[in-house]
Each structure stands twice: as C-alpha cells, then as structure tokens.
Amino acid sequence: MPDYFHGYTVVGLVAVVGVLFVAVAFATGRLLRPVVPTREKMLTYECGVDPVGEGWAHTQIRYYVYAFLYVIFAVDSIFLFPWATVFAESGYGAVTLGEMFVFLGFLTVGLLYAWKKGVLEWS
Fold first, then answer.
1. SS (H, E, C) the chain
2. Given this model, what pLDDT does residue 72 score?
3. Cα–Cα distance, 11 to 5 (Å, whole number)
C-alpha cells in the first residue's frame, strides 16, 4: 500500500513547491517594487501617444471567424498524431483508418460549410 501512494505524494509535493514558488515570487515583487502613483501613471498608455476619444473600437467579426477556424483546425490536427501511433500497432489498422476517415469527413464538411457561407473570402 505505501508504494501506491508514493506516486501521489511526489505529485502533491511538486504541486505544493510550485504554488509556494509562485507565492514567494509575487510577494517578493510586491515588497520590492516602488509604489509612487501619480496622475500621469494612471493615464491609459497607448504606444507613446496620448489617448484621444473613447476606448471602444469596432472590429469586424470576420477576424474572429478566421481565428476560430484556425483554432478548430489546429486542435483537430492534434488528434492526428495519436492516430498515427495507434495506426502503426498491429490489429488496429482497419478500424483506426475507418475512424480517421469519419473524423476527416467531419472536418471536410465543416470546411465546405465555411467556404459555402463565404467565410473564407478575404475582401
């Protein structure tokens, strides 16, 4: 039984040391930093230029759609690496290949839908 909990003890100690390290770093930074608030320091800083107007800016939604599509395909590509390792093992070839074609089919349908809606056109 002691061998069973040894692994959990090591993980717990590493977690405690990590939390303590972060806490000590933040506390040390708070104690050592100079705190002299002035009116000029409280202004919004924007690339060396004094801010003019309101802080709200309009951003077109298509940039978010491109980012969202990138995240979807980046995360989905992560699933290809474990598939490649399982595909190499004996006895899993045909089943794994079929599952991957279903997976790639869903990706293709999603990409075709985005293309059909005109999301991928840059104007």
1. CHHHHHHHHHHHHHHHHHHHHHHHHHHHHHHHCCCCCCCCCCCCCECCECCCCCCCCCCCHHHHHHHHHHHHHHHHHHCHHHHHHHHHCCCCHHHHHHHHHHHHHHHHHHHHHHHHCCCCCCC
2. 78
3. 10
The answer to whether residues 83 and 96 touch, using CB atoms and an 8 Å cutoff, is: yes
- CA 114 to chain CA centroid, Å, is 22
Average pLDDT over residues 81-108: 78
| Per-residue model confidence (pLDDT) at position 46 | 60
Half-sphere exposure of residue 47: CA atoms within 13 angstroms, side-chain side? 1
Q: Which tokens hold the place of 66?
A: 């491109």
Tell me the per-residue pLDDT of 49-88, one tens digit each, with 9 for 90 and over. 666 677 677 777 777 777 878 887 787 778 777 777 777 6
- On whether the CB atoms of residues 86 and 96 are closer than 8 A, the answer is yes
Q: How far, in Å, CA of 44 to CA of 51, rounded? A: 7
